[in-house]
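Example record for the data management plan.
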Amino acid sequence: MQSTTLTHAKLRLSESNVRKANGDAGLEALAASIAEHGLLQPLIVSPSAGKKTLYDVHAGGRRWRAIGLLIERGVLPKDYAIDVRLCENEDAAAREISLAENLIREAMTPADEARAYRDIVAGGADAEAVARRFGVTVRHVQGRLRLADLAEPIFAALATGEITLDVAMAYGSTGDRERQAAAWERLSTSWQADNPQAIRRAIAEESLSADHPIARFLGEAEYVACGGRIERDLFAAEGEGRWLDGDLAMDLATKKLALEAEVAELGSKLAWVKPTLATHVTYDETKDLHAYWPRRAEPSAEALARMDEISDRMTEIAEILDAPDEGDDVEALEAEYNALDAEHDKLSATDLLIPEEDKPNVGTFLVLGKDGQPRLLETYYTSTKPARRPSASGEAANGIEDDDEGPAPSATLPRSLEEQMAKDRRDVLALHIAHDPALALDLAIFSLARDHAGHFGYSDTGCTIRITDRNEPSGLTGIPASTAVTELEQQRASLPNDWASEEDSFASFLAFRSLDDGVKAGWLAYAVSQSLKASLASGTHACAFQSRLGADIGIDMAQHWRPGAENFFDRIKKAQILSILGQFDPEIALRYAAAKKTELATAAARLCSGDTIIEPEIKAKALAWVPDVMRFDGVAVDLIDSGMALDDAYDDAGDLPLDAANQNDADDPLSQAA
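Corresponding structural encoding:
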């Protein structure tokens, strides 16, 4: 390498100069500096291939352009002597010199940097060597190399500044260019085009884990036979990895499940069986339907005898498992218990008794179990609101109860319980808002702008958007955290919070502003979720706005909160527990009328958790039950004056005949479960 001078006309930008995005930013300032102080550093050049009188500029391209600007304006003469250092190695060395200078000076675009690292690695260097040469981390180099492998339209958008680095990295979360391109085609023109989290979710959703219920249901052989691709790491075994063609798998599984639903419909007494390619049925699928509780035929004498044997044996196993001896085979006992439970369910699943006038409208859903096996829901629906037909016994002849029928908890609840229920209900609503940034943003803007838009007076939304004191009620003490509280904490912990550790408030603010929009939206959603006051559907803590908001979201409270002994049944009166049991089956309430409060609370909690062997229709009712004041479905029943007569009927076991009061016997499966 030697030093010399050349005129501007004899120089041109080298094709190996890695800065393809020229960038006019700062060029005027650089030209002014050269005009005032001269060229402080020489350009690095080499002879042009096939052009003996021309030289390629490998380093100093912006200085060369600034000098050209000065010559064009007449500030410098055309024969202005430019200091250069002539490099004979015009390949890898020139490219590396160019890269080094560009990194030291104005930062290159990520696309330029990615191309440069890719070219150097293609020449035989590894990521560690590149990192050492240019003073960056290996992870930084690897990240840029992954950017260089992006699908062409995405890389082009990054190079032109159409998308940010965070967005490009989101597309790079998979190395499959076809999946990148598919996600780009779908999202690049949508409102989520600049949301890295949405892009990552979309790419992940386009693939399936090999142990996903849909993958297990379809089967690897059928998927591969139809052209499906599987991505496995080096140590993955057969049946592991990710199915890359999620759309293909979904399409094949949908068709397969539709055939299974047709077979299930033919083999049942139902008018319809709707296939749902999921492990549960969503609110949207059932919002226009009505729950239907058909009766079942009585099991045969042989089946009843066998069910009694099963119940006795399961009770024995449960007692052993509660305090196992050293020689007990716990795994074998648990396996036997589960097998007996399944057999009992099968024996109790007798034929449905559906009146002729209801048959054309009654059906259910076919869903997937976590093991991928199709299963019919034991909850039934009708497309028309069923009529209640009283029988001679005064009960609904088809087992259907009106929405306003059945005993409800009586006049008052302990204050601490009511407060805790209000907090639990609020936290479930908060959990849904925390997972819905769009809703949270709308709620935040509405709450902040409403007064400025002309509303004057008290806000009844129950949303303290300034995140100040929520006047949190005390609630219960010594109870486990609810599922919603745990998941809210997981949501908070998943969000980056380094920006908040800055002691200087303005520095913290600048750090927060540097976060991508998806992360900021996540923090907004969580913060808004923490502005909610504790509320119930009625009573002292009633908030109609929150009730309607939860109903609009479609929250099924039973999926998030279950009444247990500690958080509910221990805190209410025995008569109230009996009233609740009476809603599931009046006979259960009568059998437990003489039971002790502790035993009754435990049994009710197990029933409502599904941890009890009981008739399917009773079990379904128990699993769906939550107090009306906890619901978000528009129910706003005042606890006062609701169900008092029934409460009084169960209030004192001494008011019942002796035989009825003592029907809590060993043959009652609920008693055994307790």
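Summary line stored alongside the record: Confidence is low (pLDDT under 50) at residues 390-411, 448-457, 635-674.
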